[in-house]
Specification:
The chain has about 270 residues and is of the alpha/beta class. Helix content is about 40%, strand content about 20%. Helix 1 packs parallel to helix 3 and helix 5 packs parallel to helix 6.
Amino acid sequence: MSTQREFEFTFAHFDALRKQAHNYSGINFTDDKLEMFYARLAKRLRKLGITSFSEYVKRVKQDQAEFSEFVNAVTTNITAFEREPHHFAHLKEQMKTFKKSTVNIWSAGCSTGQEPYTILVNILPFCRQKRIEVKVLASDLDTDVLSKAQAGIYKVKDVEMYGQAVKKQFFRKGIGPKEGFCMVKPVLSECIEFRQLNLFYPWKLDRKFDFIFCRNVLIYFEQKKKLEIIDRFASNLVPNGILFLGHSELIPRDDPRWKNIGTNMYQLTGAG
Ligand SMILES: C[S@@+](CC[C@H](N)C(=O)[O-])C[C@H]1O[C@@H](n2cnc3c(N)ncnc32)[C@H](O)[C@@H]1O
């Protein structure tokens, strides 16, 4: 199989690389990810002028900057505006009875930013009317996606689900060479703090959140680690705070601290 490839890529190369990525990120790369590793990392070899994967394995071990590029290359960053929209509808409902002057929200594993911007598009008009300040922490492990999130530039067709008024309020349409793209307006980006944060290891945050979105991230971790991270989210939430998980991520029913309040939505009860 490897004879048709530009670079020889053995299972041992794959295994050495996936172990390094796992030790850092917690992502559990199954055997079927071998082709994905090859496709994404062959580009790195070409860029660096490296001629073998044996050399690349060593490089990743020794060179911190390349290690970061390597991790960025193998993470899966699929996301979209209004992904799993019932969560944003629920958040909007929650805001109607919100009593504090600031709402703190964390988008953990925000990828290229569509999730935190969607949160804001949904609640900012109401919050401004009610004079509720909105603070969003948007974090990810991958520094490339964080840069894209911060730049806030998307294809116009990515936001086509929004009506003209919403698009006009929150996005600036590109012209000339930027035609077909749009950029989020400062009214959205100024509510967000972007930060690199690795969920695999304990983190320190200086505030508690009313809502945490961690969707389609825990799916890549082993069960024990998932539960450990969910425990840590519990200590980052205010009493009765809500955790939104991805469509295939569940909290075991027998955990009394969490009340299932809808599809992949859990409220911290204080019990247990
Ligand atoms: C599939 S995307 C999900 C994006 C968004 N939450 C959504 O549901 O549309 C998963 C994101 O989790 C990030 N991720 C993976 N492992 C991580 C870790 N250990 N710490 C923080 N983020 C991580 C990836 O870089 C990626 O951007």
